Amino acid sequence: MGRGVARRLGASHPRIATFEQPLSDLSGYGADTEALRHAVTRGPGHDVAYALAEGLLTQGRCAFAECVNSRRVTRGPWAAGARRTDAPFHEAELLLSDPAEHEHQATTRTMDIPGLTLDTAGKPPEHTIKDNSSPTSSPSGA
């Protein structure tokens, strides 16, 4: 969905999985696979995407980011980058309220990133955004 929205807006789409998979692939070069995968899912892919989005905003470009988890700690940096560059920031949350449809979508989706393993458990995400860290400030609709 994010790629289609970005295309329609004429925006760049710094997709976190695009960065996480190549970082995870480094485990094939003799690194501790499990430790590396844990590290990748805890930040570097996100950090690269945040930095890229902020760089694009600094250049006056539009960046469209999406988060598929409900943790405020992974959402706040997008807003912080927009604030630092004086770029407008808008946040929207889409919820699929039908658990059966969510399971269907989770278990039948395809991936366009070679080597990326999808979580196909089909479990609906928690409904509310968890405030797992103190956000730098509230997102604005500027």
Strand content: under 5%
Give the biggest sheet. none
Provide the residue-averaged pLDDT: 74
Low-confidence stretches: 127-142
The structure class reads: mainly alpha
Radius of gyration: 16 Å
Fraction in helix: 40-55%
Q: What is the rounded distance between the termini? A: 23 Å
Shape: globular
Care to describe what's here?
With 142 residues, the protein is mostly helical. Helices cover 46% and strands 0% of the residues. Helix 2 (16-25) runs antiparallel to helix 3 (33-41), helix 2 (16-25) crosses helix 4 and helix 4 (44-58) packs parallel to helix 5. The radius of gyration is 16 Å and the shape is globular. It starts with a helix and ends in a 34-residue tail after the last helix.
Concise structural overview:
The protein is mainly alpha-helical and 142 residues long. It has helices at 2-9, 16-25, 33-41, 44-58, 72-84, 99-108.
Can you lay out the helices and strands and say which pair or pack?
Blueprint: H1 2-9, H2 16-25, H3 33-41, H4 44-58, H5 72-84, H6 99-108
Helix pairs in contact: 2-3, 2-4, 4-5
Structural key phrases:
0% strand, 142 residues
